[in-house]
Design a protein that fits this description.
With 205 residues, this protein is α+β, with helices and mostly antiparallel strands. It has one domain (2-203). It contains 3 helices and 10 strands; from the N terminus they run αβββββββααβββ. It has helices at 2-24, 129-139, 146-158, and strands at 35-39, 43-48, 51-56, 62-69, 72-77, 82-86, 114-124, 163-173, 178-186, 194-203. The strands form 2 sheets. It has a 6-stranded antiparallel β-sheet with strand order 1-2-3-4-5-6, sandwiched between helices. Strands 7-8-9-10 form a 4-stranded antiparallel β-sheet. β4 and β5 (72-77) form a beta hairpin. The protein starts with a helix and ends with a strand.
Length: 205
């Protein structure tokens, strides 16, 4: 784990030096502040923009994720194997492509929402690094960002759960432009042993 951190810090240092060089020649550098880190009990993630490096601490496996948009991503394993992730279909329509940034001046929690439906899903908390990564992508953005989701998976593993069951109540507002996802997480297939719930908002267009 120490080697992983040292490697990440070397990357950050290199980016900082490179940024200084770019500033001298008039090119806007990449800010080291854009790099985010998640250091959990089982996984270590480093995110810079739309690129995520994810390592399983137990197996030592690493996957490189490039998130193209909310429906598409590219996963690259250490051996060079590439998997193109594409969401089969949005959980909610009417748009075929969904998810755009919510303007800072808008608080989506203030809207009046109408109940739409309840969905039930589940995901494994253990497995090879590729399957865990694909599970993370399938849950974005309904259950939050990638760090929030991996945190929930880690919590479930600490509780001894090999699978998480999720019940999500879905709502819409503003002519289907905004959706609210209220998700409840359980360690039991009968949707008992509730250990977490989240509320997330998605702007469709």
């Amino acid at each position: 784990m120490k080697k992983l951190k040292e490697f990440a810090m070397k990357i950050i240092s290199s980016i900082t030096v490179f940024g200084l060089i770019l500033s001298i020649i008039g090119v806007k550098p990449i800010s080291a502040a854009e790099i985010q880190e998640f250091d959990g009990d089982y996984f270590y993630l480093v995110q810079e923009g739309n690129k995520v490096t994810m390592t399983d601490k137990e197996s030592g496996e690493t996957v490189f994720i490039e998130i193209e948009d909310i429906n598409n991503a590219i996963l690259t394993l250490e051996d060079g194997t590439i998997t193109e992730y594409q969401r089969e279909a949005p959980i909610l329509k009417p748009t075929t492509r969904m998810g755009v940034p919510i303007p800072d001046y808008i608080d989506p929690s203030k809207f009046s929402y109408t109940y739409f439906q309840t969905t039930y899903t589940d995901t494994k908390t253990q497995g090879d690094i590729e399957s865990i990564a694909l599970g993370l992508l399938s849950f974005m953005p309904y259950f939050g960002g990638i760090f929030g989701i991996i945190g929930i998976i880690e919590t479930a593993r600490n509780l001894g759960a090999k699978t998480i069951w999720i019940k999500t109540k879905e709502y819409y507002a503003q002519g289907y432009m905004y959706y609210k996802y209220h998700s409840y997480f359980y360690t039991n297939s009968k949707y008992k042993n509730h250990f977490k719930d989240t509320i997330n908002y998605v702007k469709m267009w």
